[in-house]
Amino acid sequence: MADSASGNKSASGAAAPSNFIRHMIGEDLANKKHAGRVHTRFPPEPNGYLHIGHAKSICLNFSLAEEYNGRCNLRFDDTNPAKESQEFVDSIKDNIKWLGFDWHGEVRYSSNYFDHLYDFAVQLIESGKAYVCSLSPDQAREYRGTLTEPGTNSPDRDQTIKENLDLFKRMRDGEFDEGAYSLRAKIDMASPNINMRDPVLYRIRHIQHHQTGDKWCIYPTYDYTHCISDAIEGITHSLCTLEFEDHRPLYDWILHNLDIDSLRVVSDLADSEADYVLPQQTEFAKLKINYTVMGKRKLREMVESGIVDGWDDPRMPTLAGMRRRGFTPASLRNFCESVGVARSESVVDMGMLEHAIRDDLDKNAPRAMCVLNPLKVVLTTFAEDYRAELTMSAHPKDESLGQRVVPLTREIYIDKSDFEEVPPPGFKRLISGGEVRLRGAYVIRCDEVVKDDSGEIVQLNCSVDENTLGKSPEGRKVKGVIHWVSASEGVPATVRLYDRLFNEEKPEAKDVDYHNCLNPESLIKLENCIVEPSVIGNDAGNFQFEREGYFCFDSIDSSDARPVFNRTITLRDSWSN
Ligand code: ATP
Ligand code: MG
Asked: Residue 573 — very low, low, confident or very high, per pLDDT cuts 50/70/90?
């Protein structure tokens, strides 16, 4: 089978799972179709930030190219300048690199091909396969017909080639207002596929383009541009999502109605020996994840209305957000691989994504201690200036991550929740008069609970059994182990606890208004945390704060100079039960 013959290696190093696209490519290679080449492309529209759905397409296109010794282009599909911008271009390039992929050659833009696209449009007009239509957009909609009724021919459909050429040139020269004319393919107004009812190829738009400036006032449509751009770049396998299945006949119609030699001479293969074969569009199912909104329009709305703090808010399903949240490239690549590639749509459980990140961080994130809700503990049996350096491993199962030094001093902090005056049944942590082990250190006993005037516990005075470092106390069992941080040497920090943004499984469903199912606890800010010093300046970036979850360093808060950490994910799945 082609899969094994190509020696596929996945992100995790295991053989990549097969799917219908790999099968197809295997067959194409066996049949010497496309002269044995595999050339894919990732074609984002620069009108927003990439999201996890795009990651699936990126992983698919780039991995296939890697597996088959092929190539993968990055092409910005920039035919709709009104919604596009350089900011989006830059973030998309950055995200692809971060995921660990690199495109073949220069970054491409559909707008690079505007001259060719114009020439091909002239070619279609000259061969009687396109015409300039004067119907307004509203009229054109009426003439298009419906799913059950055929459309009606445009009154301009039989205009002469000469008239069409003249009008098209004048469209280009800026003589007309927007909407006054369009260029349409002459296919079949009675086609059961509405995409084939004389689709628009060019529209007049008097707007600037982020790449071509003022050069053009007519812009080609997506359908017209995409297939020709693929053909120009010598793409063999043009992979897109299912909603383009009905557009495939148009993709093929356009390419087959152009003179193939004229495509070849302007293509990247013009100077090569390779056979020139037209690209083949193949559709796969979009990635959908429950509890998540993925449509760019809604994501943009959430940014603009302030529901989140920007495209890179750690609760966003954008790659920029997930990166800030602490997701790693490996976890996302593994996730994309594990969801697979299918021809029919399904919704993936959020738990799978969370599993992928837990799995990676469990193996690779160094451990550290961070107290989220500090309660002071005075170790009364130590001298005032007591200080010890305890050496702990950075990872319980991976020695290669090395060791860390954790200072122990007379005053430390533990988490408020690790002490109870009136313990519930089964409580194994610290209680009045009880014992607990400080992680990696000694067993302590709580001798006194100090309260303020309002009755709130503000301090515990504890004695240390100094004969318990690395060994059990004599004659008794101490079950509980709690984390702690030195009060004088721990570093004050802000921790943001992130959780799912929506508490509704299908926030994008038609009968659901996502505004009504926002999880009010998707962000909880804790401003008095204290973290062990080994974390500061540690390049690892991701950490397991023991017993609390996986966290990553975000930034230094400019107002108080404290480090800020984001919770990537809890230690265990708290959603499914
Ligand atoms: P959205 O619908 O979220 O706005 P889009 O399809 O308009 O996304 P593009 O920039 O056009 O976004 O997408 C670039 C590529 O990524 C396309 O090939 C598209 O099919 C693919 N893609 C987009 N969303 C998904 C998804 N959820 N799963 C897999 N591939 C996707
Ligand atoms: Mg799109």
From this structure: confident
Arithmetic mean of pLDDT over the chain: 95
User: Residues lining ligand 1, judged by CB closer than 6 Å?
Assistant: 43-45, 53-54, 56-57, 240-241, 286-287, 294-296
Is residue 440 within 8 A of residue 485, CB to CB? The reply is no
Residue given tokens 């209680």 in the structure block: 431
The answer to whether residue 442 sits within a structural domain is yes
Structural domain span for residue 447: 373-488
pLDDT band at 7 (very low <50, low <70, confident <90, very high): very low
Buried b (16+ CB within 10 A) or exposed e, 493-532: bbbbbbbbbbebebbeeeeeebeebbeeebbeebeebbbb
For the whole prediction, is pTM greater than 0.85? Answer: yes
278: pLDDT strictly greater than 50: yes
Ligand 1 pocket test: which of 41, 50, 57, 303 has the largest number of ligand atoms within 8 Å of its C-beta? 57
The one-letter code for the residue type at 30 is A
Residues 282 and 203 in one domain: yes
CATH code for the domain in which residue 516 is found: 1.10.1160.10
Tell me the mean pLDDT in the region 384-390. Answer: 98
| DSSP classification of residue 572 | S
**CA of 56, closest atom in ligand 1:** 29
Residue nearest to atom 2 of ligand 1 (CA): 295
Of all atoms in ligand 1, which is nearest to the CA of residue 287?
Answer: 28
